[in-house]
Amino acid sequence: MQRNNFSIRNALTLRAKGVDVLDALFKVENTDLLPTKLKKRIALKMKNVLSGVSEIEKLSGLRYPAYYIEPVLTVTVSQDNIDGMGVLYARTIPVDKQGMVEIVVQLTAPLLLYSTKSTMKLVLGHEFLHYLELVRNFSKGLLSTQLTTDSIYEEEFADSARGVEPSRIFKDKKIVKDLKKTLSKGLSDEKLNEKCRINWIEKGLPMARIPMARNQVKLSMESVLRSRFDPNAVKIVSELN
């Protein structure tokens, strides 16, 4: 159990050609929470992630942020529990790395296992827009724009205000249309939800339940001001209204 409880960035960092890189499967490979057979299936599904990231980079002309696969499915519950349970298949998380902020995309193992290639690309694109929004906010020294509501229902609407307008980043009309839909209504993939419920949740595979109000990250202004983000991403978002 203890091997799975480590700092996201420090434990996932490897050295390659003198540059820090993120080993996307490090947590999956080193956790004791999943059977070996399932780990191998997750590794095989990485091809869809790599393909999706490559396409997002090609369509945007920007480098995709660091990302990793989380072996534990994160689910949220509203404060009054009226809305039930919400599954967080992916999150864009700012983390503190040696006194500076780095923005990392977290993809859950069930997303890799049960999503289609097209859904994976859509999720990656959606999180990419959140990444750019964070780059824009942090570049301006803003810290209070990512507050989370106590209600899953309200959070679905709040999420739409946290992404950069897709048409300002992508020229491909189809992905712009699809991303606008996910930003306004959230990800709607009933087959993914059903497979996740039957094959992960009902089988008792690892989950972490958190209240919606705790789905936040606290950062210091000093860390934000010291941070350096992708210059091309900063240039693009600085030109947005």
Q: What would you note in describing this structure?
A:
- There is one protein chain.
- The protein has eleven helices and eight strands.
- The protein has helices spanning 8-12, 26-30, 36-44, 46-60, 109-114, 117-139, 152-158, 173-185, 190-201, 221-226, 231-238, and strands at 13-16, 19-22, 67-70, 73-77, 85-88, 90-97, 100-108, 207-211.
- The protein has a three-stranded mixed sheet.
- α6 crosses α11 (231-238).
- The longest helix is centred in the middle third of the chain and has 23 residues, at 117-139.
- The relative contact order is 0.16.
- Residues 1-21 and 145-161 have low confidence and may be disordered.
The poorly predicted ranges are 1-21, 145-161
Beta-strand residue fraction: 15-25%
> Which percent range fits the helix content?
40-55%
Count the E strands. Answer: 8
Whole-number tally of structural domains: 1
Strands of the largest sheet, in order across it? 3-7-6
The number of helical runs is 11
Question: Which structural class do the helices and strands define?
Answer: alpha/beta
Between the first and last Cα atoms, what is the distance in angstroms? Answer: 46 Å
Give structural attributes:
three-stranded mixed beta sheet, 11 helices, 8 strands, single chain, alpha/beta, disordered N terminus
Task: Summarize this structure briefly.
The chain has 241 residues and is an alpha/beta fold. The protein has eleven helices and eight strands.
Task: Present the secondary structure layout.
Blueprint: H1 8-12, E1 13-16, E2 19-22, H2 26-30, H3 36-44, H4 46-60, E3 67-70, E4 73-77, E5 85-88, E6 90-97, E7 100-108, H5 109-114, H6 117-139, H7 152-158, H8 173-185, H9 190-201, E8 207-211, H10 221-226, H11 231-238
Parallel strand pairs: 3-7, 4-8
Antiparallel strand pairs: 1-2, 4-5, 6-7
Helix pairs in contact: 4-6, 6-11
